[in-house]
């Protein structure tokens, strides 16, 4: 066989392997992402209880309707994300191998969610969309419990990873 044909067949074989590996990697990625278990809650009033939680992991999340709030351990990374929440331990600053951080009281997590929902009400929702309402604003930081509803009484949906530490209940 001439060298040109051999080179062509060798390149074609390599391309097939690359295509096969790409398809395999994509399939594995989609399969693992789809299999992550989540819990869904939907109702007119949803209660999220952050009292007595010892650990909220970095990169954990809670989704209110279409708004996803990520927990970040790093304050710098959290500030780059529009609707971030702190993890249980948050690094404020770091230099070299040293990090300065603080423990975050889980009871305050409801305040962060309330602040994010307030920002969404003011800046993201169209006038025709129902705004979020916090039913118990005075008790959020005291009890660590936030109750979320919409002004027009339509359903609020909450989605969390299966291992999310807060207790979530549909009250109505």
Strand order of the largest sheet: 1-9-3-4-5-6
Distance between the termini: 77 Å
Q: Which sequence of SSEs, written as H and E, runs from N to C? A: HEEEEHEEHEHEEE
Contiguous low-pLDDT stretches (5 residues minimum) are: none
> What is the CA-based Rg, rounded?
23 Å
The total number of structural domains is 2
For the biggest sheet, the summary is: 6 strands, mixed
User: Approximately how much helix is present in the residues?
Assistant: 25-40%
Shape: extended
Question: How many helices in DSSP terms?
Answer: 4
Estimate the strand proportion.
Answer: 25-35%
Mean pLDDT: 77
Structural class: alpha+beta
Structure in words:
The N and C termini lie far apart (77 Å). The strands form two sheets. A six-stranded mixed β-sheet has the order 1-9-3-4-5-6. A four-stranded antiparallel β-sheet has the order 7-8-2-10. The chain has helices at residues 3-34, 75-80, 109-123, 140-143; strands spanning 38-43, 45-49, 61-64, 67-74, 84-95, 98-103, 132-134, 145-150, 156-161, 167-170. By secondary structure, it is α+β, with helices and mostly antiparallel strands. The chain is built from four helices and ten strands; from the N terminus they run H-E-E-E-E-H-E-E-H-E-H-E-E-E. The chain folds into two domains: 1-35; 39-170, no CATH class. The relative contact order is 0.23.
């Amino acid at each position: 066989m001439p060298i040109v044909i051999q080179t062509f067949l060798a390149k074609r074989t390599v391309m097939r392997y690359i295509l096969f590996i790409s398809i395999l990697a994509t399939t594995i990625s989609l399969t693992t992402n789809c299999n992550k278990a989540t819990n869904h809650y939907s109702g007119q009033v949803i209660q999220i209880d952050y009292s007595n939680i010892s650990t909220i992991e970095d990169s954990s999340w809670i989704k209110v309707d279409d708004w996803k709030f990520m927990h970040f351990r790093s304050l710098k990374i959290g500030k780059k994300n529009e609707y971030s929440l702190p993890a249980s331990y948050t690094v404020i600053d770091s230099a070299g191998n040293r990090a300065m951080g603080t423990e975050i009281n889980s009871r305050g997590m409801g305040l962060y969610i309330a602040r994010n929902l307030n920002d969404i009400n003011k800046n993201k929702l169209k006038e025709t969309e129902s705004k979020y309402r916090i039913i118990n604003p005075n008790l959020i930081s005291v009890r660590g419990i936030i109750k979320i509803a919409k002004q027009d009484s339509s359903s609020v949906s909450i989605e969390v990873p299966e291992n999310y530490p807060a207790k979530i209940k549909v009250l109505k």
